[in-house]
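Consider a typical record:
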Amino acid sequence: MLGIVMTTTAMCLCTFWSVVLALDLLKYGNRAAHRELLVWCVTSTVLYAGHFVFFNRYTSYLPFFDSVYSICNLAVYPLYLYYLLVLTKGRACLSFKLYCFGVPLLVGMVMVLLYCNMSHSDILSFIDIYLYQNSYEGLAGKALILAVVHSVAKVLFAVSVFLTLIWGTVIIKRYDETIASFYSDVEDRSLRTLKTILVLLFFTSLVSLVVNFLGKYYFARSSLLLLVPFTFFAILLFCICRVGSELKYSYVDMQKDMSADAESQGSNSEMSGTDRAVNDDRLRSALRHLMREEKIFLKPDLRITDLTSQLGTNRRYLSELFNRDLGLSFSDYVNQRRIEYAKKLMEDNPDMSLYEVMTRSGYLSKSSFYRNMKRFGSST
């Protein structure tokens, strides 16, 4: 009974979030790569349907579900990485798509062909000897080949886990750096919460690798053995789907904002070292005037293009100047100045409400104000 409950819970969670994401797609379209997240969620649902059949020993359905499970198992981590790529880059390259969809389907097709060409007695022997005992003893012919294909699939799965963790961390970091170089307010635009998901994904991946190494058969011996991996997976599934469903902003939206502001940018042609130094001095002087005299940092949702239009330069050049001279992103620089201003307001006006301090300092969001006060309040 415990095994049925545990194997059903993860499948039901995936089904629930699949419905939620499908309804969101129908209402709002593909915002924040929800379509790709839905594909991942449906794949996970089928994956856990395979777990349900295996761990509850519905052996008559295993030839079909074993093949489908293997496809989904090989696809689930690459599909999550595919979701992250669409979310942060707008698309994935063709070679990755071929890996993401082609490799799992190829392995699954090989398994289907082997199952279709095996006798009923050979299938039962394979299920009993390899799937539930993880042994090659007594296997021969197509049954032995099928066992080897399963072993190869385990290696491919381990590779996909490491690829997703490493590449996923890199692309989220680069995306957040780009966001911070363009917007002053990154609260609802950065993927900070997905970094937490990746940490959780790391620990869950360790569980996945252990389960993959030991084999499903090891956990089929007792319902209690299923408790740890399925608890980890259920928590991860809920967090991924919850966080992903709440995201409203992605690379596509950022590109729209950048394109809309592109016409206001100045240009900097190739300059000699002397000309560049003179230009840098001019920009620093003009930037100090904008910040100290005009206090442009108090403008809510300030963007770097609001500065470039007045400074006669372009976004990339000004962003490099921030990083090179101050060691800060545009967002960090602006928010540091805002917090300095907010602290001065509170010192000069002790009776002023915190809400008024927040709005007069350029913030529209309490969470953004509190987060930046915590970051820069003690250092300014």
User: Anything to note?
Assistant: Residues 342 and 361 are 6 Å apart (CA to CA).
